[in-house]
Amino acid sequence: MTEIPPARKELSAAEIGALAHLYRGEVYRSTLWRQRLDTTTNWSVVTLGVALSITFAAPDASPLPLVLVGILIMFFLMLEARRYRYFNVWRARCRWLETHFFAPMLKEGDLHLDERWQDRLADDYLHPRYHVSSAVAMGRRIRRNYLWILLIQATAYLGKLIVHPDPVTSIDEFLSRADIGPLPGIVVLALGLLYCVTWAGMAFWSWQSDRRRARTRPAHTSMG
């Protein structure tokens, strides 16, 4: 026997007004956390810009700042992923209200996409939780912003080794310029390649994860 979903609760005028104010609050929180995402991205761009200025200030300047700035970029990325997980909660609630509460009022006919939308929203308030994991959040932020930041960092580092103090003439010379203290250049470059491949792999994995979630998710029944 097919299970009959429970009927939607009929909202009074006062409850509809309260829900409208709730939506405004969720939009405010979503906007606030979106600005915080922009802040950490700006920090990454600024620190990379400082590293570029120091490294290319003179032909004999060390490329080491472009290596060390990667540590800061990693820290900012992890911080931004944490902020994104909060932002995603508020964004999902706003989108849920827009889809299941406001859209049916604006379109003629019965457009309730989920008979239990009120229960799902109430459950999200009663049992708040993140809608995505830290790894997925990091992958999304890499895809949106940090892939370009990392690409600029890697390109600038390789360009510095190739052109300063003079254009490189051999592979051995190129490797020797990448030496950092006791670490030979080939090890430094291998670590740099691992650094870039790791972030690119995480971005690709999160993209695949989002696609799998979209395919397996029942239409209009999930938040986040």
Automatic annotation (TrEMBL):
Keywords: Membrane, Transmembrane, Transmembrane helix. The chain crosses the membrane at residues 40-58, 64-81, 146-163, 183-207. InterPro entries: UCP01500. This is DUF2270 domain-containing protein. Coiled coil: none annotated. It comes from the Bacteria.
